[in-house]
Amino acid sequence: MDESNITFHPSEGTENISMHRNISTQERVWEILTPLWVIMIISFLGFCENGIVLWCLCFQIKRNPFTAYITHLSIADISLLFCIFILSIEYIAGFGFAYGFYYYITTTLSIVFLLGYNTGLYLLTAISIERCLSIVYPIWYRCHRSQHQSAIVCAILWTLSFLMTIAEYLTCKDDSTKEQFDDANHCQAMLIFIWILTFLIFIPLMILSSLILVIRIHRNSLRPHSSKLYIIIVATVVVFLIFAMPMRLLYLLNYHHWSSLLSQQNHVTIVLSTVNSSINPLVYFFVGSSKNKRFKESLKVVLSRALADGLRPRSQEVGMSLDIAETIF
């Protein structure tokens, strides 16, 4: 055998291997960066949408008990979207998982992200339950509902969300100075408590009350305007269950450290959760807009129609203007 056949191309194989590695590395980079860019775009658009809705709720639309909940829900979504947008920038820029200053920024943003997520879950449950009570026990509800009940409930839910988020971080964070056995036991106990609170209390109550609202929507099919409020509640609950629940399931089934919020295995659920927080303003718009005047009415008119509280005495349903109906509370 000619020795030149053996010794003439030693570098060719090395070049092929190097080229293959470069192609694999580039594909790997694009697999990581593409979801991050998608998250950035969706979160930015959702942030703007919720910001517009929040501005209209605070300065353009007459307040009622339902708009108070929607205002706090928009704040929770804005917090979540802002944090995930900044985290995406950090990871694309290469600051993710860094120690020191960037580590604390990443941790803080992750905590606020989960705070917004938990608050959104609790608020949606409260909205569904309150509307359900107004249907099942209308007289009792009108007589016993206090003027500041929405504000009080929102404050309680924000406090609960804050305590749950901080407790989850303190018990399940990665801390090498703590005993691993005790740390694992505390984290496991905390996750079990979150399972019970989320999937045995809040989610069943949300689904049950939403089913009652669906029945109400079916009965009110001849009066579509009075059903807009219930359609919005049911739609936001369904969107939350489809898009937001997978993220919480992933973290509870296979909990990761807080610094891995945007790790590759979490990209799909983070994208879905971002969509959930961005889509609510679109629900308000399409439910509140008139089919014949869609994209022609002002946002104030559309939101006023969509978020109008339909709880009023039956005698006032005929012959009264929308302005009077909106000021019952």
What is the CATH architecture term?
A: Up-down Bundle
Beta-strand content estimate: under 5%
Q: In terms of per-residue confidence, which ranges show pLDDT below 50 for 5 or more consecutive residues?
A: 1-21, 312-329
The count of domains is: 1
Number of helices: 11
CATH superfamily (homologous) name:
Rhodopsin 7-helix transmembrane proteins
Overall form: globular
Q: Classify the helix fraction into a percent range.
A: over 70%
Biggest beta-sheet profile: none
CATH topology: Rhopdopsin 7-helix transmembrane proteins
Sequence of secondary-structure elements: HHHHHHHHHHH
Distance between the termini: 98 Å
* CATH C-level label: Mainly Alpha
Radius of gyration: 25 Å
Number of strands: 0
Mean pLDDT: 78
Structural class of the secondary elements? Answer: mainly alpha
Structure notes:
- This is MAS1 proto-onco, G protein-coupled receptor.
- It is a multi-pass membrane protein.
- Keywords: Cell membrane, G-protein coupled receptor, Glycoprotein, Membrane, Receptor, Transducer, Transmembrane, Transmembrane helix.
- The chain crosses the membrane at residues 36-57, 101-129, 150-170, 190-217, 229-247, 267-287.
- This protein starts with a helix and ends with a helix.
- 78% of the residues lie in helices and 0% in strands.
- It has one domain: Rhodopsin 7-helix transmembrane proteins (Rhopdopsin 7-helix transmembrane proteins, Up-down Bundle).
- Mean pLDDT is 78; it is low at 1-21 and 312-329.
- It is an all-alpha fold and 329 residues long.
- It is built from eleven helices and no strands.
